[in-house]
Structures are given as C-alpha cells and as structure tokens.
C-alpha cells in the first residue's frame, strides 16, 4: 500500500482504530504478535520516510479506544471509522484493509469464531466480498 504520499491523517487514525478494535474486541486482549502485525500493517500504508505518521495514528487510536467508557462506545466508534473508511478508500484499498485484518487475527496462530465474525462484518461494512471456510459459497 505504500506510496509516495501518506493517506490523510484521518484515514490513518480510522485504520489504526479498526485494526486495534479487531485485535481487542473479539477476545478482550491484544496479543504481542497482533500488536506487531498492527504496526507493520500501519507502516505499509505510509511511505518509508514517514513512519512517524503511522506511529502518531496508532497512539491517537489507542487513546481514543481507551477513552471510550464501555464496549458499546467502542463499537459505535468502530462503526463510525469503518463508514469513514468506506467513503474514503478505493475498493482495492478496502480489500487491503480486510487482508490486514485477516493478518491481525491470524498473528497469534489461533483464530476465534468472534475474530472471524469481526472480519466478515468489517468486510460487509467496507463492501468487500469474503468467503469464510466451512460456509457455502453464496453464488
């Protein structure tokens, strides 16, 4: 995803929030391996010489996430950020977000049903078709 220009800070913040929520909400924790994957996926959205922008977005997302008074507020923020991304990213970029979410949930070598459900819901929100193993192809 890296290009010569970083996405707008608002886009990076929304990405970071969605990635953090993907890691935290389904099982209540952010594993070290998931944290590393989030960082690497955020860095992929920025030029090599602009890593500080990704770091700032991650810090802001953590602060936003932790400032939510409860899970319902986190979910409302998540929906807001997903809607924002859907309106500001190309279909190819939305597909990349889903690929990133899959990498995040697979980072700890165990994918819970709640994590899989999160990715499927995110895909629907971003207008990306996904097929979950074990489910029939809808076509």
Strand content: under 5%
The ordered string of helix (H) and strand (E) elements is HHHHHH
Q: Low-confidence spans: pLDDT under 50, at least 5 residues? A: none
Number of domains: 1
Main β-sheet description: none
CATH level 1 class label:
Mainly Alpha
CATH fold description: TerB-like
- Rg (CA only): 14 Å
The DSSP helix count reads 6
Task: Supply the helix-strand structural class.
Answer: mainly alpha
What general outline do the C-alpha atoms trace?
globular
Q: How many distinct beta strands?
A: 0
Look at the structure and name the CATH superfamily. TerB-like
Write down the overall mean pLDDT: 88
* Multimeric organization: single chain
Q: Can you name the CATH architecture?
A: Orthogonal Bundle
Q: How far is the N terminus from the C terminus?
A: 30 Å
Q: Percent range for helical residues?
A: 55-70%
Descriptive report:
- The chain is built from six helices and no strands.
- By secondary structure, it is an all-alpha fold.
- The chain has one domain (9-126): Orthogonal Bundle (TerB-like).
- The longest helix has 18 residues, at 71-88.
- The radius of gyration is 14 Å and the shape is globular.
- The mean pLDDT is 88.
Features:
mainly alpha; TerB-like; 139 residues
List strands and helices in order, with pairings.
Elements: H1 9-24, H2 32-44, H3 51-67, H4 71-88, H5 91-106, H6 113-126
Helix pairs in contact: 1-2, 1-3, 1-4, 1-5, 2-5, 5-6
């Amino acid at each position: 995803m890296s290009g010569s220009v970083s996405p707008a800070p608002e886009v990076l913040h929304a990405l970071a929030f969605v990635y953090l929520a993907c890691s935290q909400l389904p099982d209540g924790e952010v594993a070290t391996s998931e944290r590393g994957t989030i960082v690497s996926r955020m860095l992929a959205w920025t030029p090599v010489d602009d890593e500080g922008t990704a770091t700032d977005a991650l810090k802001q997302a953590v602060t936003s996430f932790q400032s939510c008074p409860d899970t319902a507020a986190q979910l409302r923020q998540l929906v807001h950020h997903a809607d924002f991304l859907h309106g500001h990213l190309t279909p190819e970029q939305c597909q990349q977000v889903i690929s990133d979410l899959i990498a995040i949930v697979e980072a700890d070598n165990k994918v819970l049903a709640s994590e899989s459900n999160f990715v499927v819901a995110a895909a629907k929100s971003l207008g990306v078709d996904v097929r979950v193993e074990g489910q029939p192809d809808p076509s």
